[in-house]
Amino acid sequence: MTDKIIDYNNILTHWIQLRQGQLSLHIESFKLQSLFDIVNNGSMGFNLKGINLIVKPTEAVVKADKILTLFMINTLAENARKYTPEGGTIKVYARTTEDAYVEISVEDNGRGISEEDVAHIIGEKVYDSRVIGMKNAADPEVLKENKGSGFGLMNCKGIIEKYKKTNELFRVCVFNVESELGKGSRFYFRLPSGVRKVI
Question: What phi and psi, each to the nearest 5 degrees, are found at residue 88?
Answer without folding.
Answer: -80, 175
